[in-house]
Amino acid sequence: MSPSPSPSVSEPGEFLSLLTPEEAAGLRTAGRPRRWDRGATLMAEGDASDWVLVLTSGRVKISSHTSSGTEVVLAVRGPGALLGEFSAIDGLPRSATVTALEPVEGIAVRDFPAFLREHGRVAVLLLQTVTGRVRDADRKRIEYGAFDTAGRVATRLLELAERYGEQAGGAVRVALPLSQDELAGWTGSSREAVSKALRSLRDRGLIETGRRRVVIHDMEGLRRRAR
User: Fold this and answer.
1) What is the distance between the alpha carbons of residues 123 and 113, in angstroms, rounded to a whole number?
2) What count of other Cβ atoms lies within 10 Å of the Cβ of residue 64?
3) What is the DSSP letter of 3?
4) Nearest to 93 by CA among 61, 45, 60
5) In the chain, % of residues over pLDDT 90
6) How many CB atoms lie within 10 A of CB 100?
7) What is the pTM (predicted TM-score) of this model?
8) CA-closest candidate to residue 159, choices 219, 69, 217
9) Which residue has the higher pLDDT, 137 or 223?
10) Which of 26, 52, 18 is nearest to 125 (CA)?
């Protein structure tokens, strides 16, 4: 079963959710609406373009490739996220690829620095957003060294559940936008190791998995395994 597109409501803490109604209206005026189908590439690593995108619905994965061609998933972003801001600020090529995990829509802004010059408060919010992402990247690097594969998988499932989970009785259901290969790339593991980790979590009764979905039966138990 394919996951349904995420609602067009900004996730708490994402860039768009931090703007005032006036600032959000100014952003929409400065940009134009765009949409992509599932699987489409929104931005490609190495491209020289410098426009930014603010997601208004749907989820994307942000990834990069190693010299051997292995895909490393850096993050999953949803409604309200700002994408492509580094290239807009420093003028350098894209540092990662952005791919639609489901149909997505957003506001594409060509001259983002001009928008920031007209809205000084938003420039401070941008700094806070970038700082938060750097902290998140640092946290994940620590996880890779300190946790085993099952711990990293449990952490990523908790992250998805907290951001996108839906209550289903006493469980939490997550429409999983990632394949096992992509989950492996997000946890710095092999597909075989991720499959083994999921089986271990299932055997403990913590989760139930299906095609493109996971049901978490014991959130606290999954948190303990993540730690």
Assistant:
1) 9
2) 16
3) P
4) 45
5) 58
6) 23
7) 0.80
8) 219
9) 223
10) 18
